[in-house]
Design brief:
Layout lengths: L2 H29 L6 H22 L7 H4 L1 H17 L9
């Protein structure tokens, strides 16, 4: 596998984890059970799971009353997309080994 395959695999997995964590937290909120800390949800978004957490947030209607989730998760996603675009169109050539 090349580097791009590893990166894509990582992003798929971390977004599935973010999606699942939001779904689990919503389920636990309904059952009034132990909850996943908000900081954990944000960390997962920051390390690449922002797309999964944002989709899950709207799909499950979870955390949409909290402004920091409603605006924070999409902001993280937009920043990550901007960084990817900048790296793709950067004049610097990245070579791994």
């Amino acid at each position: 596998m090349d580097v791009i395959s590893y990166i894509v695999t990582y992003l798929i997995i971390i977004n599935l984890v973010g999606f699942a964590l939001m779904g689990i937290d919503k389920y636990k909120a309904k059952k009034r059970a132990w909850r996943i800390p908000e900081s954990t949800l944000f960390v997962v978004a920051l390390i690449g799971g922002s797309l999964g957490t944002t989709i899950a947030m709207h799909l499950f209607r979870h955390k949409t009353r909290h402004w920091y989730f409603l605006y924070g998760m999409p902001a993280i996603l937009l920043i990550q997309l901007a960084v990817i675009i900048i790296l793709i169109y950067s004049p610097i050539q990245f070579k791994i080994l």
